[in-house]
TrEMBL record:
SMART domains with a match to the protein in the record: PDZ
InterPro entries: Nas2_N, PDZ, PDZ_6, PDZ_sf, PSMD9
Any one GO BP annotation for this protein: proteasome regulatory particle assembly
Stated family: Belongs to the proteasome subunit p27 family.
Name assigned to this protein: 26S proteasome non-ATPase regulatory subunit 9
Annotated source species: Dinoponera quadriceps
Record flagged with keyword Manganese: no
Keywords: Chaperone, Proteasome
A GO cellular component entry from the record: nucleus
Stretches assigned to the PDZ domain: 99-178
Keyword Lyase belongs to the record: no
């Protein structure tokens, strides 16, 4: 009975965190629309070539929006860490891999037996969506959303999927040493370049 109560409390805590995460992602989408309406991203200069504030955008609004995006991105990263900790706690209480909805250890899964890596992560930028998702340098990517080694053609496939999945969670199946895990990666603008904040390199066929 005590374990059941503790398990329910752990689940309620994770559900509350996920709800908060969804709210942040919704706010980030709204902020991104503000930047889109000004036709800028997170890094374009706010002054013209002569050093004066640009007249084609609302400089104050853009500066404030960028600041809010940075703050919310940091909050999102912290929430993802708490969610991961909560999922691990649920897993410990239930002893079931199915309890983890964001990061799932599945070393004995039949599905993973047919999965083959096609990308290797060789760079993770601090504070990026990739870091928030839990990706690490050296991870081998088995699946990136709907992309697998059988239908992967070029890195532009990854870029295109990320662009089409802004603020939408993508399941990324990876192999880390002997462990198989599924991470949840949400592409979105951040202080750095791109929507992911990581660099991956294709594996040659012989490496698979």
């Amino acid at each position: 009975m005590v374990v059941d109560m503790e398990l329910q409390e752990a689940k309620d805590a994770v559900f509350a965190l996920i709800k908060e995460k969804d709210k942040i992602e919704s706010d980030l989408r709204a902020l991104k629309e503000v930047l889109d309406n000004n036709h800028v991203g997170m890094s374009e200069p706010l002054v013209d070539t002569e050093g004066y504030p640009r007249q084609d955008i609302d400089v104050y609004q853009v500066r404030r929006t960028r600041h809010d995006i940075i703050c919310l991105t940091n909050d999102h990263k912290a929430l993802m860490t708490k969610i991961e900790e909560g999922l691990h706690k649920i897993h410990a209480l239930t002893g079931s891999n199915d309890a983890q909805q964001g990061i799932i250890d599945a070393p004995n899964s039949r599905e993973t037996e047919t999965s083959e890596p096609f990308l290797r992560v060789n760079l993770i930028s601090p504070g990026s969506p990739a870091e928030s998702a839990g990706l690490q340098v050296g991870d081998l990517i088995l699946e990136f959303g709907s992309i697998r080694y059988r239908n992967f053609k070029a890195l532009t496939d990854i870029k295109r999927l990320a662009e089409n999945s802004r603020y939408k969670a993508i399941n990324v199946k990876i192999k880390r040493k002997s462990d198989i895990m599924i991470l949840t990666l949400t592409p979105h603008p951040w202080v750095g370049e791109g929507l992911l904040g990581c660099n991956v390199i294709p594996l040659e066929a012989i490496e698979r």
